[in-house]
Amino acid sequence: MFRSELLKLKNSISLYLILFFTILEISTIPAYLHYINTEISMTNLSIVTMLIYPILVAMLTIMSFEQEISANNFQEIKANKKGKRIILVKFFVIDFLLFFPTAFIWLVTGLIQGSMHLGLAIASASWLLAIFQNHLHGMMNFIIGKGENILLSIIEILFIIFASNKVLIGSYWCPVALPINLILTGDVTYVMIVLFWIIICTIILYVLLNKKKY
């Protein structure tokens, strides 16, 4: 099932968008840090790249949602006994692909810079942020329109900026800020809280899928 959903993205705009962003990061981040080799620069640069995630993920979820609507696949999923599993797999496929522009690049960068511990922390935080946003925007596609979803991503960017200034330390109510707090404090508690928010978004998605007609 995972493989079949992954193959559906072959030659898709979503896949090309992820590949483009991954290649862009690989070609710029290690080169930049080669000349400015400090852990502070690495941390700051990771937060700057996170500012792109909300828009990127919102676009991915919107395109995926519209593809399912046009193909009438939501009706098939609702009628299928394994419908919930199919929804999970669809999200897991995007989660998996988001590993490359979020976590992979920072694992490689941490290895190159000799800061594997920091690289692992940034990779974990970046991937968790992208996964949460994938589940959040995927859920919100059932509630609001495309424009509102993009607007939500802009609000998320503002929260990331606030979090980078340590304004939202300990603010567990703001899931977008938690991965930033993980990088800044190293407190693994933030990992568990983000996972909790991801599960909540997924549960709400199930409810919306069963209640709403398309």
Notable traits:
11 helices; 214 residues; mainly alpha
Quick structural summary:
The chain crosses the membrane at residues 12-33, 45-65, 86-112, 118-137, 149-169, 189-209. The chain is mainly α and 214 residues long.
Describe the structure.
The chain is an all-alpha fold and 214 residues long. It has one domain. The chain has helices at residues 2-8, 13-35, 39-50, 53-70, 73-79, 83-97, 99-113, 116-140, 146-164, 178-185, 189-211. The protein is globular. The mean pLDDT is 87. The chain crosses the membrane at residues 12-33, 45-65, 86-112, 118-137, 149-169, 189-209. Keywords: Membrane, Transmembrane, Transmembrane helix. This is ABC transporter.
Beta-strand portion reads under 5%
- The outline comes out as globular
Order of helices and strands: HHHHHHHHHHH
Would you count the extended β strands for me?
0
Distance between the termini: 23 Å
**Number of helix segments?**
11
- Poorly predicted runs of 5 or more residues: none
Tally of domains: 1
Percent helix: over 70%
Main sheet specs = none
The radius of gyration computed from the alpha-carbon positions, rounded to a whole number of angstroms, is: 17 Å
* Class based on secondary structure composition and strand pairing: mainly alpha
Overall mean pLDDT: 87
List the SSEs and their pairings.
Blueprint: H1 2-8, H2 13-35, H3 39-50, H4 53-70, H5 73-79, H6 83-97, H7 99-113, H8 116-140, H9 146-164, H10 178-185, H11 189-211
Helix pairs in contact: 2-4, 2-7, 3-8, 4-8, 4-9, 5-6, 7-8, 8-10, 8-11, 10-11
